[in-house]
Write a structure and sequence with these properties.
Layout (H helix, E strand, L loop, with lengths): L4 E6 L3 E8 L12 H16 L13 E10 L7 E5 L19 E5 L2 E12 L3 E10 L5 E11 L4 H4 L21 E3 L5 E3 L2
Antiparallel strand pairs: 1-2, 2-6, 3-8, 4-5, 6-7, 7-8, 9-10
């Protein structure tokens, strides 16, 4: 998903993102489509499992969705902006149409949301992650989800691909201390993003 921005993550299994919900994710009523919320939550909540993974335990992308329950609380509006047009004003289309807007062009902007995901339980074969999609200031919660995943073995050819944080783990799955770690505000260890 283009434009998905990781804001924070922790080794305890949390991930925070910012994402622009624009017209690509809207339905005909100019609000976010429910199916789009499902795809967004699926990706963002699964990512929260990444810091918990180690060889043989929730290898990243080594699971499938069992259930993904979403509660839609408020519609996410597309948002509009009126821009001045270089063209001369046109007569109003309707008698009630304000004439001072007749030379403006409507532009769809979108709404940037904050996604917070937290792993509430991760066992050997099943995990549950909760997610919240809210306004950037956190005052408006648009929807929430509960995502249950089932661990399946990752195909060997997929495990050949390496990512920057793979060096954080030793062969037996214990965290390697060193230069790839930093401390958060409370002085606790946090993986470097």
């Amino acid at each position: 998903m283009a434009g998905l921005k990781l804001v924070d993550a922790s080794p305890e299994g949390t991930a925070d993102f910012e994402f622009l919900i624009d017209e690509r994710y809207m339905n005909i009523n100019d609000v976010m489509h429910g199916g789009a919320a499902g795809v967004i939550f699926d990706m963002c909540t699964t990512t929260a499992l990444g810091p918990l993974s180690r060889p043989g335990f929730w290898e990243f992308l080594g699971g499938v969705t069992r259930t993904l329950n979403i509660s839609y609380l408020r519609a996410i509006p597309l948002g509009w902006s009126l821009l001045s047009s270089p063209f001369p004003p046109k007569p109003p289309l309707l008698p009630s149409f304000p004439s001072h807007l007749s030379h403006s062009v409507s532009t769809k902007l979108g709404t940037t949301v904050r996604l917070h995901s937290v792993v509430t339980q991760a066992g050997r074969t099943m995990a549950m992650i909760r997610g919240t999609m809210s306004s950037l200031d956190g005052k408006t919660i648009y929807c929430t989800c509960e995502h249950h995943k089932v661990h399946i073995p990752t195909p060997a050819e997929h495990l050949k691909h390496r990512v920057a944080w793979d060096e954080l783990w030793e062969k037996d799955g214990k965290r390697v201390e060193g230069e790839n770690e930093r401390k958060d505000k409370n002085g606790e260890q946090k993986a470097k993003l």
